[in-house]
Amino acid sequence: MVREVTPFRPPARDAEADAFVAARLGEEQGGNAAPRLEVGQIADVWDALGQLEAEDFAVEEARPSVQHFVSRRAWITGGAIAAGLAAGGVLVWRGQPVVYETAVGERRTLALPDGSRVTLNTATRLSARFGGGRRQIVLERGEAFFDVAHDQGAPFDVLSDGARVRVTGTRFNVYRQAGFTEVVLLQGGVEVGPANGPQAYPATRLRAGQSVRVSPEGQTDPVVAAQAGRIDDWRQGRVSFNRTPLAVACAEMNRYSRTPLHIRTPALESLEIDGVFEAGDTAAFAKAMARLHGVSVRSDDGALILSRRS
Q: At what angle are helices 282-293 and 246-254 packed, to 10 degrees?
């Protein structure tokens, strides 16, 4: 059963943080005093840096290296801010890339400085670098949906495990998995190939409604029809199955939850299931399996164990 998913809402502005950003921009421009920036310029900086919160600027005691968007704080407070305002108020990034990530079960939509938008699925991490006629994203793990603003003079590149997706303006999805990256094109055109150029394998051109998998070496599989419904599902916070083996369904549900599903009886792995579920609600999924398929469910050490009833 699908329940309504609360959309991401950006945090409120903070005057102290605005002043901090303005001061750092002044230093980047070679001055000691903070420049008098227009409200729209400050807004551009906030959008580019992923909606920084006031607490991101607080001095912290040493703590374990478990990070939840912590790269923003470390990058800025370390004095290596890479945002500057060029002529005409256009935001340009220099130096280190900006890193964004989501936790398990979280989704996040970001506005990029070129007008593009990217939505990060669960447990996703990517870095972004813009400027000098380049727009580059590195998908370090997970899945992201891109709605790219058209700019013929600045190609938009997404790098993922040896693969490169290049566009000038389009809507597409990139999912980095173990052993391959899947690219699904919904609108426009993309070129998929090796990250380091076509020396080993030629690039593959996709049309809207097509999908392809590419290896870490940059070799593409045959082009197939895109499963656009799956992408719409995760962007809306749901997961759909249509005659899907239970083992595959459990693996997909586990992407979104810290309470994983484990199949104890091997014979259940091939059980085909149908349905639409809220992403992350493994408990509701397990109850549905018990009610519809007579599967036994028990909790054990933070996991839900599925087995055949004796």
A: 160
